[in-house]
Amino acid sequence: MKILLKIIILLIFFPLIDLQKIYAEEKINIGLLIPLSGEQKEIGKSIMQSVRLAINKIDNSNIQIIPKDTKDDPTRTLAAAKELELKGVKIVIGPIFNKNLIYLDELKEMIFLSLTNKSIKNPKNVISAGINASSQINTIVKFKNQNDINKTIFLIPDSDFKEEIEDAISRSKIKLKYTHIYNTDPTKITKQIEKFTYYPQRKQNLIDEIKRVENSTEENKERKIENLKKRDTLGGINFDSVIVSDFDESLKSVFTSLLYTDVSPKRIYYITLNQWFDETFLKETSLQPIYFPSINKKNYDKYINEYKEVYDEYPNQLSFLSYDLVGLVYYLIFQNNFVIDEKIFYKKNKFKGKIGIFDIEKNRINHLLNFYKVENNEFKKIFWSF
C-alpha cells in the first residue's frame, strides 16, 4: 500500500518519472531455505557464503537475503517457509533436497527455486533449478549428431533417479538402440553386462575359431593362432556407444565391466552424465576417453578460486548453482518490472550465468551445457553450448 501511495504522489507531481526506478528503490526480499544445523549444515554454510559472494558482485543494497534453517527436514522446511511468507517474501532460493519439497504446495503465493535436479512430481510452486537429466541428455543428443553416432544403448541404474532419466529420454526424443535397467549391486553388474554384450557368445566364437585354425591346413596358421590367442573375444558388437546414467564408484564398475567384456572405449563411445569434473576419473586411463555434458569449467574453476580466497576453504558443488540463482532472480525481477508473480518464470527467457545459460519457459528451467571428455589426465572441451 505504501509503495502504491508513493507512486501515485510521484506521478501527480512528476508525470514523466520512470516507474522502473521507483520499483528499483524498494527492497527486493529473497528467501533462502538451507540446512544451517544438522548433518547437512556444511552444505548450507557453503551455499550461504556463495550467496554472499553473489550479492557483493551485484552490488545493489536493495537486495536483501533472508536465510532460514530447514534442518534438512520437510516439516521444519514448511515452518521456515511460513516465516518467510509472514515477512512478505514471495520468492525463495531452496530448499536444496527433493525430500524437503513435499509440503510446500501449501504456500501457493510463493515460488521456490529448489537446487534439486529432480524435475518431475514436484509441487507446482517449486521450480527445479538443478542440472536436470533433460538438459544433460539434450547436450548428449547434440554430440551424437555431430559425430554420427547412431547405435546407442542407454544404461539406467535401478535407483530413485530412474524415473527422471526415463522422463528425460522421452522429452529429448534421443534415438536409442535400446535401454537397459541394471541392478547396482557390484556383484551383479558384470553378469548383466555380459548378457547384453553377448560376451559368452563372442568368447565361444574365439575358442571355436582357434580350434578351426588349429585343425586347418592354412598357411601361417601358427601366426594366426598366436594372434587369436591375444584376443579376448571374436565378433562384432551391435552398438557404437553407451550412455551410463550413474556416478562415482558405481559408474566406474559399469565401465570396468564393459572393459572386461571386451567393449573398450577404443571400440565405442563411453558417455555419461555431468560428473562435476571428478578428478578421480583422470587416473582411470583404461576407461578413457569418457565423454560427458557439464557446466562451464573455466567459470567453475574461477569461482572455486574466488571462494577459497575469501573463505579459505573449498565450496560445495551446489553452492556454485546458488551463486547463479541470486543473479537469475534479480534479472527476472528486473525483467518483470520488479513484480514477483506466477508469470516471472512462465515467460520464455534466457539468462547467462556462470554455470552456462538458463533456458526458462513455462515454470521450467533447462541448462544449455558444454561438452567435455576425460583423456590424457585432463578434461578437454569438445564444444560450448553458447
- Quantity of strands, as a count: 15
Q: Output the structural class.
A: alpha/beta
Assembly state of the chains shown = single chain
Distance between the termini: 43 Å
Tell me the CATH architecture of the largest domain: 3-Layer(aba) Sandwich
CATH-defined topology of the largest domain:
Rossmann fold
Biggest sheet architecture: 7 strands, mixed
Tell me the strand percentage band: 15-25%
In short:
The protein is α/β, with parallel strands linked by helices and 386 residues long. The chain has helices spanning 2-13, 19-25, 41-58, 74-86, 133-146, 162-172, 186-196, 199-214, 221-229, 248-260, 297-311, 317-335, and strands at residues 28-34, 63-69, 91-93, 111-114, 126-128, 152-157, 178-182, 241-244, 269-272, 290-294, 349-352, 357-361, 364-368, 370-375, 378-383.
